[in-house]
Amino acid sequence: MTPAFDDRDGVIWFDGAFVDWRDAKIHVLTHGLHYGSCVFEGQRAYGGVVFEQRAHHERLHRSAELLGFEIPYSVEALDAACEEVLERMGFVDAYVRPVAWRGSEMMGVSAQQNTIHVAIAAWEWPSYFKPEERMKGIRLDLAEYRRPDPRTAPSKSKAAGLYMICTISKHAAEKKGYADALMLDFEGFVAEATGANVFFVKDGALHTPLADRFLDGITRRTVIGLAKAKGIEVIERRILPEEMADFSECFLTGTAAEVTPVSEIASYRFTPGALSLGLLEDYMAEVQLK
Known about the structure:
Layout: E1 11-14, E2 17-20, H1 31-35, E3 38-40, E4 43-46, E5 49-50, H2 53-66, H3 75-89, E6 94-102, E7 116-123, H4 131-134, E8 138-142, H5 164-175, E9 180-184, E10 190-193, E11 197-202, E12 205-209, H6 218-229, E13 234-237, E14 249-254, E15 258-265, E16 268-269, H7 274-289
Parallel strand pairs: 8-9, 8-15, 12-13
Antiparallel strand pairs: 1-2, 1-7, 3-6, 4-5, 4-6, 6-7, 9-10, 11-12, 11-14, 14-15, 15-16
Helix pairs in contact: 2-3
């Protein structure tokens, strides 16, 4: 059985110092817990090196700015801390989680005086989806909840509060036997899965939702670059759900998901093919080089 995340051996970088894993605790009246004033990143280390580490920490800073607070550590300091976390944990291939949140000095919607805390933890996490399902294509349900209008939420921030509906949607999908769920945006166009961006294939070209209403993933951008380098046309646009009937392949991209083929979204079917599997191989080769 996988050990609980609050009961593991090792260390966590916490506000500039290393503490025992089990002692990395916060108070129950922490603002980030009650009001969602928390941002985070999901990173992967391959061969002891975090892929696109700088881009992740730059985005962490931007996410915090969108929530109205400032990360008290520079991008360079976060880079160094991540590298030391991996070294102290003895990990070569691992998942790395930097997180920043408002503390507990003020309890209420207003919390301008609260201390901003930052922590970085790492653990071994081989695959987000079951390996036996991943290569033949995972199954997705359609989520009930939609990604919010950017005028109602800071959609360009990787903010903890924005994942509430993702957890609800993924739990509902898993209860019905699916691996994940596809979410639509506030106007009913295809958006993303609960924690990954989505791509489709039609007539040798890639189609993916325009990422202006949800997080533009670092893995998403990497895959777009790899596809263009191979001469594959990439079309970023609004996609209606019914258009999925015309696509031959589908796959998800994300730090946790990496590149994962999809075989089914509700009533729509796809067959993992040369384009999806080729980009999966290209991506894995790319991350191993960094």
